[in-house]
From TrEMBL:
Ranges in coiled-coil conformation: none
UniProt protein name: Deoxyguanosinetriphosphate triphosphohydrolase-like protein
Key words of the record: Hydrolase
Gene Ontology molecular function terms on file: dGTPase activity
GO biological-process terms attached to the record: dGTP catabolic process
One protein family per Pfam: HD_assoc
Keyword DNA-binding (UniProt): no
The family this protein is said to belong to: Belongs to the dGTPase family. Type 2 subfamily.
Cross-referenced SMART domains: HDc
Record-annotated HD domain positions: 63-199
InterPro entries linked to this entry: dGTPase, dGTPase-like, dNTPase_2, HD/PDEase_dom, HD_domain, PHydrolase_assoc_dom
Length: 379
């Protein structure tokens, strides 16, 4: 398809950190996507927690299935806006590569452990994965992705970390956090598709788990309106079919809302090219009404699902695993794989090692090192 003038054109990419000949049959962004899909870190996502630990049920989302859903939603929005679908797919598939085992519980615990050593940000870790930690090519570390893909992967970044990135790569992916400019429209889109995806699938997984009920979620206006619409068309619909039909309608409504609102913003702003997007305010957005409803749904999920006593109990044990692994590896680096044990930057090496673990590998390592078996259902 033809790209809009404000889209990222792979033929005009800012390129890779290490120059490579162009691929004969693929654009730069298609090549990025393929490298991500074939990476070790991408495969590990299948055994990394989204909300429910991987062993708690075969049908709950993992980081891998979440990333696939984000990619699908992002492409659905990108096409009618004339944006680069290959770029949004690459960003979506890579955006969680730096997530720790045990989801946000593991991330928070690792950040606490790393506070004296510069902290831990999962977005920055995703960039570290694609820039440094993947070991596949003889000429360079990482995947050597295009600037535009790397920029989209780094959704958030503290000023201190942005300054460190700028020192290493002047004018690179950290620069916009210092200048307070925007990333590409494709990157903005993936950020919003991420929110749409996890709001929808956390309802599904929450009801499936029994921690929240369909009747509870019905009271949230964004979901309740679509449940009522489903029943109007299909009287007597119930159970999973009612849940899925309501979520499907909600997803469609949010996707169309973003398309319409973003199209209006682009018409008002009329950026002549992708460079002009960076100097403009954020352009990919919900309407005000949809943003308010989405925020209300997020608050509901926080209160009723993420802070449910059963989830909190699991969270506490998962954080204990991460903290104890960190302490043991820091004291005894030789317990890590050789490539990490030999690194001189011990705290960061430990953080990289733990962040790369799947849930079940982290649990096995914890049991091996401590003799204690937490979250025993893993077996």
């Amino acid at each position: 398809m033809l790209l809009a003038p404000y889209a990222c054109d792979p033929a005009r990419s800012r390129g890779r950190r290490f120059a490579e000949p162009a691929a004969p049959t693929r654009t730069a962004f298609q090549r990025d996507r393929d490298r991500i899909v074939h990476s070790t870190a991408f495969r590990r996502l299948v055994y990394k927690t989204q909300v429910f630990l991987n062993h708690e049920g075969d049908l709950f989302r993992t980081r891998l299935t979440h990333s696939l859903e984000v990619a699908q939603l992002a492409r659905s929005i990108a096409r009618p806006l004339g944006l680069c679908e290959d770029l949004v797919e690459a960003i979506a598939l890579a955006h969680d590569l730096g997530h720790t085992p045990f989801g946000h519980a593991g991330q928070d615990a690792l950040d606490d452990c790393m506070k004296p050593h510069g902290g831990f940000e999962h977005n920055l870790q995703s960039l570290r994965v694609v820039d440094q930690l993947e070991e596949r090519y003889p000429e360079f570390d990482g995947l050597n992705l295009s600037f535009e893909t790397r920029e989209g992967v780094l959704k958030h970044c503290s000023r201190a970390n942005a300054q460190a990135l700028e020192r290493d790569e002047p004018g690179g992916v950290g620069r916009r956090f210092l200048d307070r400019t925007q990333p590409s429209l494709e990157a903005q889109l993936c950020n919003l598709a991420d929110e749409i995806a996890y709001n929808a699938h956390d309802i599904d997984d929450g009801v499936r788990s029994g921690l929240i009920t369909l009747e509870q979620v019905e009271q949230v206006p964004l979901f309740g309106a679509h449940l009522a619409a489903a029943l109007e068309v299909h009287p007597g619909l119930q159970g999973r079919r009612l849940l899925y039909e309501s979520i499907r309608r909600m997803l469609s409504a949010l996707v169309y809302d973003v398309i319409d609102e973003t199209r209006s913003a682009l018409e008002r702003t009329a950026p002549p090219d992708a460079a002009a997007v960076r100097a403009a305010p954020p352009l990919v957005a919900f309407s005000a009404a949809a943003a308010a409803q989405s925020s209300e749904l997020k608050r509901f999920l926080l209160r009723n699902l993420y802070r449910h006593p059963r989830v909190m109990d699991t969270t506490g044990q998962a954080q204990e695993v991460v903290r104890e692994l960190f302490g043991r590896y820091l004291a005894q680096p030789g317990e890590m794989q050789a490539g990490f044990a030999a690194r001189p930057d011990a705290p960061r090496a430990v953080a990289d090692y733990i962040a790369g673990m799947t849930d079940r590998f982290a649990l096995r390592e914890h049991e091996r090192l401590t003799g204690r078996r937490l979250l025993a259902a893993q077996q």
